[in-house]
Amino acid sequence: MARSTRALVTSCLTLALCAFQGASAAEAPKLNVTAIGASGGKSTLECWQLDAPFAVSDTPGTRGSAAATLGNVSNLGMTVLPAGFDGGVTQRAGQPVSNIHCDFPVYTWVMFISGMAHVTLPGDDSGGAYILGGEFGLIFAADTANVSEKGHYTRYPGIVETVALQIPTLDGEIPPHQVVRSGPCLTNNTAGLRSFAGSG
Ligand SMILES: *[C@@H]1O[C@H](CO)[C@@H](O)[C@H](O)[C@H]1NC(C)=O
Ligand SMILES: *[C@@H]1O[C@H](CO)[C@@H](O)[C@H](O)[C@H]1NC(C)=O
Ligand SMILES: *[C@@H]1O[C@H](CO)[C@@H](O)[C@H](O)[C@H]1NC(C)=O
Ligand SMILES: *[C@@H]1O[C@H](CO)[C@@H](O)[C@H](O)[C@H]1NC(C)=O
């Protein structure tokens, strides 16, 4: 069992390649992502479940696999951060900024493809969120300066470099979602991706 799980994981590096078996429309799974939101002028960590369910792809090349539409985007950027890098607090007027990576002027998807990011919130000692590069590496940053006074803090404590794709949404879109919990998504909010590989 453990061996077949590992094999499926290694052969299943992207959603599009995962076989997607046995899910009817009624039980179509939905993606949960950790989001950095804002409330009362402060950044928050939340687990969002996106309203758009996974559907069975009809696109040649990924036909039959699980596919979710995450919305319209405007740009694609890539950042490479050395191991053990401290990115500083997101940019705010009058505050020092050691790295612009964390300064999201607009709502932005961030896909960590390697390494590790540790997101913490100023004045919050809950431990923050550790985001591992890879299949569970997608987060959404919505704590723009107009809604969060102090932003959030990001370090990259991994032992290898952290590579991230930054993908701002188009025209300030926020993907329709429900907040599943306050705090980052837990393993049981994300592990469902692996079940897409089914038993085949
Ligand atoms: C993406 O843009 C199209 C065309 O402007 C629009 O119809 C659609 O509603 C947008 N999608 C989302 C998720 O906002
Ligand atoms: C905050 O700024 C973002 C990015 O410019 C914008 O899309 C959003 O509408 C603004 N929100 C408010 C409440 O002003
Ligand atoms: C998910 O895991 C957390 C912590 O391990 C637990 O408290 C929670 O009940 C679990 N939720 C579900 C739906 O299993
Ligand atoms: C999202 O989280 C819910 C529990 O809150 C879980 O039932 C579901 O399987 C998760 N989706 C994925 C794709 O892991």
UniProtKB/TrEMBL annotation:
This is Cupin. The lineage of its organism: Eukaryota, Fungi, Dikarya, Ascomycota, Pezizomycotina. Keywords: Signal. Residues 1-25 form the signal peptide.
